[in-house]
């Protein structure tokens, strides 16, 4: 089999790239280890930046997001027994949409299928060959049979546990990493919303986040030990913790509901550079991870794909490879901005066990500052909506 662009991984990065290339008349094949129903039901991120919303809309896959997603013009910071609002719209002119990542995945898979695109689910033993030549190939097994896919380019969109990153020789790559000593306990709740907007809460007991999925389904998280077990947390214990961390002194309370899913995720910051070698290019979590506090993971995957789509578009239109040659350098500017913001927001909002009482007071002083100084609030808001210029 032969295609122009071989894509490893059908996450948001791989599927969106395949869709955008198709709109530019460029053929691709996406190889995915999991089944379609698995990728369409894995619960992950929820916040789409304005730029992500715009790209989905412009490329014709934004209808359901517009109809079913919730447009938010701000969010709230809860600390010291009170809640203060960050008015994203007023500070930046932009908004965000809360729309689950697996819904974006469903929309993208539907668009690829409708266009006759090739997404091969349930593959195994994917390996990458010949990236230092002009005819690289992907080897894989499907339905028990070995296959070879010859391509012009290979794009590794296979997430943090994929095989693409390690196809770039270690001697050319540098990994930068910070593992946080805490995780997020995530719950899905059947019940009404607590507030109209997201609440990020800083509390001496630890961080908590109140997000949403629909008028009847809410998404909440609280800081926990990454090695903790979901079984150690009864529903009553979870609600007691959420109330202790989020409720305000003036009586505003988290709205309880029926918990129907629980999971724990670890938190880390990670960048692998370079993101390209020969005919192989990495995009999304395959090359970088952010802690979810800044809601950047999915949006960064989308911004990598936007850059790649333009670079591949230029190559196939003019034969020029300048944008492709500059891909890693171009993408890393935005990635490091988001890494810094996510790290900063994580340290601002979480209970840091290594922090002295002095540093805890600094955390509160900084929260007072970002919620009272328009200049500080604007910087936070620009980073959050993704409008900051890099
Ligand atoms: P994805 O979404 O991980 O997709 C990669 C796809 O590649 C497949 N794959 C392979 N396919 C073929 N061959 C192989 N050898 C393969 N190895 C893997 C995988 O099955 C998968 O389908 O990466 P992508 O497209 O770069 O998208 C990035 C986003 O998914 C990610 O940044 C965010 O979801 C991060 N993230 C969160 N971000 C937030 O902003 N808020 C959150 O609440 C949030 N929760 C999460 C998350 C990431 C998680 N991970 C990575 C485990 C929760 C989890 C559990
Ligand atoms: C979510 O709704 O899953 C969500 C929202 C904001 C974040 C992270 C996750 O910062």
TrEMBL record:
It comes from the Bacteria. This is 4-hydroxybenzoate 3-monooxygenase. It comes from Caballeronia novacaledonica.
């Amino acid at each position: 089999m032969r295609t122009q662009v071989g894509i490893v991984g059908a996450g948001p990065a791989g599927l969106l790239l395949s869709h955008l290339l198709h709109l530019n008349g460029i053929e691709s094949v996406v190889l995915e280890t999991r089944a379609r129903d698995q990728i369409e039901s894995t619960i992950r991120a929820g916040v789409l930046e304005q730029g992500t919303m715009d790209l989905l809309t412009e490329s014709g896959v934004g209808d359901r997001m517009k109809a079913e997603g919730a447009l938010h013009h701000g969010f709230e910071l809860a600390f010291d027994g009170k809640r203060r609002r960050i008015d994203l719209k007023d500070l930046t002119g932009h908004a965000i949409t809360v729309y689950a990542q697996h819904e974006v995945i469903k929309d993208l898979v539907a668009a690829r299928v409708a266009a006759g695109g090739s997404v091969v689910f349930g593959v195994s033993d994917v390996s990458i060959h010949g990236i230092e030549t002009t005819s690289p190939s992907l080897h894989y097994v499907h339905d028990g049979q070995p296959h070879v896919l010859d391509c012009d380019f290979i794009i590794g969109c296979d997430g943090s546990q994929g095989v693409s990153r390690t196809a770039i020789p270690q001697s050319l790559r540098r990994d930068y990493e910070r593992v946080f000593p805490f995780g997020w306990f995530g719950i899905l709740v059947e019940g009404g919303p607590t507030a109209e907007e997201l609440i990020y809460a800083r509390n001496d007991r630890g961080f908590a986040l109140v997000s949403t999925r629909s008028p009847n389904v809410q998404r909440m998280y609280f800081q926990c030990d990454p090695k903790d077990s979901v079984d150690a947390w009864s529903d009553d214990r979870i609600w007691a913790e959420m109330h202790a961390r989020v409720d305000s002194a003036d009586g505003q309370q988290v709205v309880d509901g029926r918990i129907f899913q629980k999971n724990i995720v670890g938190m880390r910051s990670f960048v692998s550079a370079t993101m390209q070698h020969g005919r192989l290019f990495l995009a999304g979590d395959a090359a970088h991870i952010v802690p979810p506090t800044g809601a950047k993971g999915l949006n960064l995957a989308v911004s990598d794909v936007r850059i790649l789509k333009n670079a591949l578009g230029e190559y196939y239109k003019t034969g020029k490879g300048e944008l492709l040659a500059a891909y890693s350098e171009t993408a890393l500017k935005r990635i490091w901005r988001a890494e810094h913001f996510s790290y900063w927001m994580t340290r601002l909002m979480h209970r840091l066990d290594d922090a002295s009482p002095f540093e805890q007071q600094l955390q509160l002083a900084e929260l007072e500052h970002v919620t009272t100084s328009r200049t500080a609030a604007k910087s936070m808001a620009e980073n959050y909506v993704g409008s900051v210029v890099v």
